[in-house]
Fold this protein.
Amino acid sequence: MKCELCLLNEASRVCRICGRHVCVDDYVEDKGICIACRDTLCYICGERLAVSLCARCGKPVCRLHSVRVGLVRYCVNCARELGILHQPGN
Ligand SMILES: [Zn+2]
Ligand SMILES: [Zn+2]
Ligand SMILES: [Zn+2]
Ligand SMILES: [Zn+2]
């Protein structure tokens, strides 16, 4: 079976999130996921699925690591820099 992402190499891994069969090049060994899913995970925790992209840095963030301001959402790092983070800690 060929890797479902690059369609070139032999698939030797299965992503635990999407179930795609992928080659080692397209697999994140320590997380057990494919690179396509890595891009859908929060860039801060790398655990939860991102709910949207930070309006400032453009990185994917989960609900927990983002702050919603009106219609947009910022990651906690940007929110902190912008002075709009009200939650303590983290
Ligand atoms: Zn591949
Ligand atoms: Zn995947
Ligand atoms: Zn997160
Ligand atoms: Zn950000």
Q: What stands out?
A: The chain is about 10% helix and 20% strand.
